[in-house]
Amino acid sequence: MGNGLRLGPVLRHVTETSATIWVETNAPGRVTVTAGDLSASADTFEVHGHHYALCDLTGLLPGRAVEYRVSVDGTPVWPEAGSPHPPSLLRTPDPSAPQRLLFGSCRTPTDHGPVAVARYGTDVLRAYALRLAESRRAADGAAEEPTALLLIGDQVYADEIQQPMREYLAARRARTSADSLRPPDDEVVFFDEYAELYRLSWSDPDVRWLLSTVPTLMLFDDHDIRDDWNTSGTWRREIAENPWWRHRITSGLGSYWVYQHAGNLSPAQRAADPVWRALRDGGGAALDEFAWRAHTDPSSYRWSHSHTFGRSRVLMVDTRCGRDVADDRARSILGPVGERWLDESLTGDVDHLVVASTLPFLLPKGVHYLEAWNEAVCAGAWGGWLRGPGERLRQVLDLEHWAAFQRSFASVAEAVLEVAGGARGAAPASVLFLGGDVHFSYLARARPRGRATDTVIAQLVCSPLCNWLPPAMRRMTWLSARAVAGLCCRVLAALAGVRAPALDWRLDDGPWYDNALATLVLDGRSAAVRWEHSPVARTALLSAARSRTRPPVRELAAHRLTRG
């Protein structure tokens, strides 16, 4: 049997004239991507017995769509024979056309059956893929084609695995000698296990087709590694006591670089990346060494990345690995390298400045002030005897968003106000924060305290794609969004010495708790956002799951953010 694809192709970094296609193959080989009269080839590289390639097509025309094919060692492997999906397209952006950016986070892979739908809800990413495929077959959806898909966190759940992954772990560990490390039975630890986790998450036929035909940019969040990853210095010290942790963090960060981060980079950025050069020469050992260094010295590597869409800039910001949490009195959600990069990137002279981080910058007021209060207590604002209980509360309630890093929050807020005030170049029409993680969606609009600006500042949250909150958690988060909760927690934070932020904001719509996918449309100086979902009537969803019909995708909410 010849070589073939284990996973992919995944369409990654795309510009007006180039496109990168990522694949995982079953064995070493040479991968060729052909689009019209253009082609690109690359030899695979190996990591712990797995084989990958990135092919960079250049010479494409702006604003054009062309079918592409993939072969391995000269044998066609994509599109698959008998595939029901339309051909995979390379669609380069037209800088003068509206830019349509899909975004969402938190996706648990399921079998889409009634039991899975009852627990996790409809997989909206798959539902969107099915609708896009129908539109392409009918040739009526060209105007609504997405420019890119931003997956902003928890693309895989390494610590909340499904039954197929449990069975894989049991079988694999029965064949290996990992007992001395005592790895958890229900969490992935080793690179092979992460490779299988990605395969299970991205091999659903409809999602696989979507990833092959819509350019995708990615960021990790905690579940890509482990729940509450890098919450605090205490968390880091406690997790390090586990004998399996070094394997977990090196495998998690290493696999993230291969499966997610490498495709975020342009060909020139990747060629200059020391990890790429070391990986090509040293394979898995070099990747493990890099990953461990990135964990022990977060300032040794920058995971954040920037992209241009027309006259708008999108900043994809790492708020996990780069954190500096060693001292509760001097915490940074970005770390020194991330802080410097983001500050330098927060400039004007664009129509829209989009800041995408997995964690919402602007939370509901009650949660924001609760997290700010907790950070102050953990730093000793109410005495040393409360620092321990404060830390336990932080970990139990996941109090570790931007608001729990007040120095970082204040610094970014001030920089955004400078951008909006024209102090960092011509002011954009909007500064928009994209976020996920919290498993509910909302729109919050913000304004400066004591200043005037024509720039719209807003927080757009879309979460989850497939992992809706149980009813009890929904009630808790609904309460946190109420005005009375915000007032009470603000008083509490003030008593701990927390200052009022330079930004004021309120929830303009939401929260919504259904699985959702959002679309941000940037058209000149105009910006609009739309959330879509499968209706929450569970009887209808279960009926669709039983009959295996396409789940409906309908508008949940839509807002014009700027008039242009």
TrEMBL record:
Every PhoD-like phosphatase metallophosphatase domain range: 142-465
Gene3D superfamilies registered for this protein in UniProt: PhoD-like phosphatase
SUPFAM superfamilies per UniProt: Metallo-dependent phosphatases
DUF7800 domain: residues covered: 4-88
Coiled coil: none
InterPro entries, per the entry: DUF7800, Metallo-depent_PP-like, PhoD-like_MPP, PhoD-like_sf
Name of the protein in its database record: Alkaline phosphatase family protein
Species the sequence originates in: Thermobifida alba (Thermomonospora alba)
